[in-house]
Write a structure and sequence with these properties.
With about 100 residues, the chain is mainly α. It is built from four helices and no strands.
């Protein structure tokens, strides 16, 4: 029983650990950083902007996949259409949690 609980906790926390790796793998870190603005806003700035918004995770995941311009200035964010919906939501959840 204890092993099952421990394994469950490990599996549930895996997306948080995988998200930084996923952000690096998909070149997100070339334009974004956790706490400082690079070309695009920091993930912490994004989390603050979306804080308290209904459907924030779904909306951010949609923005990640579709890309766009104008929300954070004139520099466009390229679409990440290759991400599955689940991976885009996992990244969005990680970002909204402060990229921790």
């Amino acid at each position: 029983m204890i092993k099952a609980i421990g394994l469950s906790l490990l599996v549930l926390s895996a997306p948080a650990f995988a998200s930084m790796e996923m952000a690096q793998k998909n070149a997100c870190m070339g334009c974004h950083a956790v706490a400082t603005k690079v070309l695009g806003p920091s993930y912490q700035e994004v989390a603050k902007k979306y804080a308290g918004q209904k459907d924030a995770e779904a909306n951010l995941a949609k923005s990640i996949k579709a890309g766009g311009a104008g929300k954070w200035g004139q520099v466009p964010m390229p679409a990440q259409a290759q991400l599955s919906d689940a991976d885009a939501r996992r990244l969005a959840a990680w970002i909204l949690a402060g990229a921790k």
